[in-house]
Amino acid sequence: MHELIDRCRGGDREAFSELVVQLHPWALRYCASMLPDESLARDAVQESMVLLFQRIGQLRSNDALLPWLRSILRSQVLRIARRPAAADLSGAEAASSDADAQRELELAALRQSVQRAVASLSEANREAVELFYMEERSVAEVSLQLGIPQGTVKRRLHDSRRLLRELLPREGIKRGSALHGDDEERINL
Q: Where are the domains of the chain?
């Protein structure tokens, strides 16, 4: 991938298209984990890729691409989430019954509360949490991506869980709250 990034930094549009093809699935999963609608996630990815194309010459090292892109994606997600249209596309409109609509609203509020709590972590801890929990990467993968020892990743995750145990109740989230409707993904810190 380093050669591909070098070609992109040199202005090779074909190389950039290839890079987008490789990064798009990961970027979409990342954005979709933070936005209530997949079309909004697609918008965030598209806008992020445009910014990446415009600024790739500013990239300091090839190893910094993924953390840098994650930062761009996060900024676009936050920008889109603040738009009034994002609120209009919450799961309530798509729900077929009042009960489903209420559940979707509760889940959206729960996701936002978790995102606020995670956003309050230090940048180092937040990156580890996002990679490990939201992108479902292994400790070894997080270690490689962040360029830190696995023990440091484990410490950051441990510290983050401890902090989130304190922060989440302030957000009104109780231990064991469901994040994804019928899925069994629960907050058990």
A: 1-89, 94-189
The topology under which CATH files domain 94-189 is Arc Repressor Mutant, subunit A (1.10.10)
What is the DSSP secondary-structure string of 91-121?
Answer: HHHH-SSHHHHHHHHHHHHHHHHHHHHHHTS
Tokens of 17: 């298209």
Q: What is the pLDDT of residues 48-87, one digit of tens each?
A: 888 888 888 887 788 888 888 888 888 888 888 877 654 4
As given in the structure block, the two tokens for residue 66 are 């993924």
Task: Count the alpha carbons within 13 Å of 75 in the hemisphere toward its beta carbon.
Answer: 11
Q: How far is it between the farthest Cα atoms of the chain?
A: 54
pLDDT in tens, 134-150: 777 889 988 988 899 99
CATH of 1-89, one of 3.20.20.70, 1.10.1740.10, 3.30.70.240, 3.30.1960.10: 1.10.1740.10
Q: Taking the complete model, does pTM exceed 0.90, yes or no?
A: no
> 157 pLDDT band (50/70/90 cuts)?
very high
Helix axes 65-82, 13-32, angle to 10 degrees: 60
